[in-house]
Amino acid sequence: MWVATREMNEQDVVLGTIVLVSHDDGQAGEILKLSVAEHCQGKGIAQALLSHVIDFAQSAGMAKLTLETASCLTAAKRLYDKNGFVEMSPPKPSLYERADVYMEKILEKKSRDFTGRDQNI
Question: What is the count of structural domains for the chain?
Fold first, then answer.
């Protein structure tokens, strides 16, 4: 789980969260929840959280990411589309009543060059 925060009045205020669960011995990850506080939506927080999780999953050697969402969440669906997630038939029925969209993203493998920087291969 990752949390985006901002300090306000000497306290950390939660702006958004994202949860990633590993499956298949670390070969796949499932994004279980991406949520941004209503007053913070439209400011790039969801994109920053999702980008961080994609980078983390690639660095961890995951081959793909999956998620479920609801078709009525059009902004979320656009975000996932923009980040390379593709709508597919679900492999099993969803546990979530509202989740009627299943998406996957195949990840590029990353390796480290001699400087320690990530390199797409």
Answer: 1
